[in-house]
Amino acid sequence: MLKYLKKYWIFCILAPLFMVGEVSMDLWQPALMARIVDQGVLQSDFSLIVKVGLQMILCVLAGGMSGVLCGVFANIASQGFGNDLRKDLFGHIMALSFEQTERFSTGSLITRLSNDVTQVQNMVGLAIRGVVRNGVMFAGGVFMLWRQSPRFSLVAACGFPFIVALMAFFLKKASPLFRIVQEKLDGVNHVMQEDVAGARVVKAYVKEDYELGRFDRANNALCTENLRVQTLLAFLGPGINIIMNLCVVAVILVGGVTVKSGGDLTPGSIMAAITYLTQILGGIGFMGMIFQTFTRAKASAERINEVLDCQSNLTDGENAQPEAARGTVEFRDVSFAYPGTKENVLEHIDLTVRPGETLAIIGATGSGKSTLIDLIPRFYDATAGEVLVDGKNVRDYTLSDLRNKISVVMQRAELYSRPIEENIRWGAPDAKPEEIKAAAQTAQADGFICEKEYGYYTPVSEGGHSLSGGQKQRVSVARALLKPHEILIFDDATSALDLRTEAALYDALSKQDPDSTKIIIAQRIASVRRADRIIVLDNGGIAAAGTHETLMENSEIYRDIFRSQQREGGAA
Ligand SMILES: Nc1ncnc2c1ncn2[C@@H]1O[C@H](COP(=O)(O)OP(=O)(O)O)[C@@H](O)[C@H]1O
Ligand SMILES: [Mg+2]
Q1: What is the Cα 16 distance to its own chain's centre?
Q2: Residues of the chain scoring pLDDT < 50
């Protein structure tokens, strides 16, 4: 992660430098105090008290200024670090394949992007300030204490190993717990994200209490783990304190005995020694705090690195030159099983779609229709066989080149919380208003959009909830039409439209966009009977193919679907 700090190296140097300034002032203070007590107060030298007093004030001011500057620089470095890291991580998450996103789970990715980055960022800020501060404090304190009297250093040296041992013990215990805490946080974010996004379903099923219970369990699990770590670490501070205070008592004892037996120690020097000792041991204690943050940040850094190290398994190809005509799609003996499952969803699919052809895919739910078309833009890679676009294996394109050829309307219309106009323009940022209107007209969306109070500038609420299902679908279709494409794929994209609007849409589509290859998944035969070719997908294989008329003649399964829909249509 250090590479993210490189850009801020100047601040990483400046901050500790000013910290050295602040600490030197802190270290100078007790010496000045000893002088005031021994030479000023005890010998009633008033002018010396004033002189040294002034020095002390200057010392405090200079120390304070250095402290402020150190803080500012350390923050610039750590915030910049966090900002860059978050940006990089986000870019990485966007590049993950569907499979990888599913494996991490959305909740966990959100935790990593927010909380984990913050942990590491805090640690960087603390390290820049704290490590130097305490290092200098420790070394300086030891030196100054030695100067007051070597005997005192001996006392400090006795306390030192105990404190280090105490710290090592607790941190070793806490380290694995921090990782568990982050995992529990994943759990909370997971429930939260699912329920906030799916709030409507929760309400519709009156499942608030049930979901609250689920959240409660995740939240309590987090709380329990947090308490376990914190209870463990609660012993650390007082433990260090006890050792520290024992040392202070020892110093007073040693000092008192020496003074009483007419030794070379003064009350001022004993006072200074106590302050130095507190500084040294306090510094060690603070190091403990830093290590604690470090341990926690280490767990977070590992989790961030897991994502950063996760190279998308969909790698770019060499960017092949197309060999066949624009808009050809070919499946050569393609089989597919979802990652982590054994059963093939698609089996031995052989299929060629000619440029400009309209191919319809019909089949029961779960027969693999969506899966089949997901292989064309490489949302997933075929397990066996090849998928070719324009005569070249899809793996040989760069992902962006491949996906730029294809416009997909997914089964679930996803819209963003922006005006309708921006939603449509999403895939073609430079589109002119008349182009946007034309796309909307083809998608049969222009009518309802113009009836809205703000027309094309009507805001869409999050997830598109402010539009009806059919309106959402038509906006999604307009968005796909506007994006430059050779291949147009509709995955059940017009299922919520009434038959008349749907027919008008396909009519307009064949007039306005005659050249692109169209692959249309549909539930209703009525939607697609005019397609150039219809294939019937059954259990992951192509059960029949042909025009509506030939299928009616030759395919039992097609006739079955047709008849059942006729009955439903008649009944409705
Ligand atoms: N991400 C996934 N992971 C595992 N199995 C999946 C996934 N998506 C779909 N499936 C399974 O693949 C089969 C085909 O699904 P799908 O292609 O969506 O069907 P269709 O679009 O024809 O309704 C179904 O049995 C479904 O359960
Ligand atoms: Mg589907």
Answers
A1: 31
A2: 570-572
| pLDDT of res. 319 | 67
Do 235 and 170 touch, CB atoms closer than 8 A?
yes
Under 8 Å between Cβ of 148 and 277: no
Cα 371 to ligand 1 centroid, rounded to whole Å: 6
Residues paired with 487 in a beta bridge: 406, 517
Q: Which of 369, 316, 572 is nearest to 490 (CA)?
A: 369
Q: What single-letter DSSP state applies at residue 459?
A: B
Residues 242-277: b if buried by 16+ CB within 10 A, e if exposed: ebbeebbebbeebbeebeeeeeebbebbbbbbbbbb
The Å distance, Cα 99 to ligand 2 centre, comes to 17
Ligand 1 atom 1: residue of nearest CA: 338
Q: In what order do the strands lie in the sheet with 392-393?
A: 346-353, 329-336, 384-389, 392-393
In the prediction, which pLDDT does 471 show?
Answer: 92
pLDDT at 571: 43
pLDDT score for 110? 92
**From the CA of 495, which ligand is nearest?**
2
What's the topology of domain 7-308?
ABC transporter transmembrane region fold (1.20.1560)
Cα distance between residue 301 and residue 507, in whole Å: 55
Nearest CA residue ID for atom 6, ligand 1: 338
Q: Where are the domains of the chain?
A: 7-308, 329-571
| Span 315-372, pLDDT tens digits | 777 766 666 678 899 999 999 999 888 899 999 999 999 999 999 999 888 899 999 9
- Write the burial class of residue 221 (CB in 10 Å: 0-12 exposed, 13-18 middle, 19+ buried): middle
Tell me, in angstroms, the distance from the centre of ligand 1 to residue 322's CA. Answer: 30
Q: Is 329-571 the same fold as 7-308? A: no
- Looking at the domain covering 329-571, what would its CATH class be? alpha beta
Residue ranges around ligand 1 (CB below 6 Å): 338, 341, 345, 363, 365-371
Note the pLDDT of residue 37.
Answer: 86
Q: Give me the phi and psi of 567, to 5 degrees please.
A: -60, -50
Q: Are 343 and 337 in contact (CB under 8 A)?
A: yes
What DSSP element (H or E) covers 336?
Answer: strand 329-336
CB 11 within 8 A of CB 76: yes
